[in-house]
Amino acid sequence: MVSTGGKNVQAACDWLFSHLDDPFLDDHLPREYVLYLRPSGPLLQQLTHFWKQSRLTCGKNKAHNIFPHITLCQFFMCADEKVEALTDALQTTVAKWKGRIPMPLPLELYISSSFIGLFVEEQMAEVLKSFAADFATEATSKADVHVEPHKKQLHVTMAYHFNASHLPVLEKLAKSIEVTAGCDWLAVLLSRDIRFANHEVTLQVMYPYVPQNDDELELLQGDFIFMSPVEQSTASEGWLYGTSLGTGLSGLLPENYVSRADESDTWVVHGATAHSSSPKMRLFVCRHGERMDVVFGKHWVTQCFDSKGGYIRSNLNMPCSLPSRSGGHRDYEKDCPITVFGSTQARLVGLFKKKFYYCCSGPINFISFPSTATLMTPSEHLAL
To answer: What positions does the domain SH3 occupy (predicted)?
Structure first.
């Protein structure tokens, strides 16, 4: 459960079955944990744009290994059986500090010949360090772990260890960021497999590969491979030696079947709680009801309309009628209505969610059950 972030039992079972031959499966190796603040909203959009453009124009630098963040504590280890208590410590700390950290955080752009980042204003940085110290205290009390709060200047690293010739381009991109843009910050607890903490290269599998020899590693698309330069002495040209995150097995693999990935792509999220000065809306995402194409197949349109575009109800589970479309009945292929049973499902969902705001994903689905939509819509509603 810990290795999958406590998602669900099915995810844990899938992980266990894929690691049946993992030589380290029975070793009690704790994972390494870290607490970050992650931005969201408009500021995150700008930082993500900077990440992509800087990588595209100047190539990858050390900052690209991890998503935009502010480090609140150093990496620490926690026993698997204590992880639930550790996440509870984070929730307790965030609840204690609710409303005490003003948003957005005051940030200042700093640029040198080898580093670009956004630094938190000193007074606010001390507030965040106090928050981190409280988390450390809670973590020690609840999970019996030692957490060392970050003592250096708090900042978001944007670029470092880059070629000096790239500085003008990176500086221009950095100065285009509006540091006062709206942003809520999430306190995020993440973990990584301690076995791969010191591996210098992380790869992602692009194509599946079936081993041809006993010393080769099976590759599954999307899996991650950890590679240490020290282990490459056994590999011939065009081949690499690595260890699979998905199975824990090691072996040789063809170099052209993988691509470089970022270190944090393999990390697991164990808890994320927002620091926000604005009230939050809760969003429930649910399937409103059974669709025509799910029940009658993707070619249902050809079965339900005549040569002139007239609707034919050939099954009692089909709607009694359908409104005309500006582009003709073929428009229904891209925007499918719900069935009679689907309307009943939607009505039940609507009755349960009546007190919440209602968002409709498709205009025809909305048209096909206006009475049900009314049930789901309070005096004020939000339309997408």
So the answer is: 198-263
Coil, strand or helix: which one is 159? strand
Amino acid, single-letter form, for residue 60: K
How many other CB atoms sit within 10 Å of the CB of residue 175? Answer: 10
What is the total count of domains within the chain?
3
Q: How far is CA 319 from the centre of its chain?
A: 38
Q: Is there a single domain that holds both residue 187 and residue 209?
A: no
Phi and psi at 340, nearest 5°, equal -60, -45
Contact yes or no for 226/232 (Cβ under 8 A): no
Residues 144 and 206 in one domain: no
Taking the C-alpha atoms of residue 13 and residue 20, their distance in angstroms, rounded to an integer, is 11
Residue 334's Cβ-count burial label (10 Å; 0-12, 13-18, 19+) is: exposed
From 166, 192, 218, give the residue that closes a domain.
192
Range of the domain at 94: 30-192
**What tokens were used for 268?**
């697991």
Per the domain annotation, does 277 fall within a domain?
no
For 137-176, write each residue's pLDDT tens digit. 999 999 999 999 999 999 999 999 999 999 999 999 999 9
Instruction: Summarize pLDDT for 323-337 with one digit per residue, the tens.
Output: 888 888 888 887 888
Query: The CATH number of the domain where 245 resides is what?
Result: 2.30.30.40
Residue that the structure tokens 């000193």 belong to: 122
Identity (one letter) of the amino acid at 167?
L
- Per residue in 337-377, pLDDT (tens digit) is 889 988 888 777 777 666 555 555 444 444 454 444 444 44
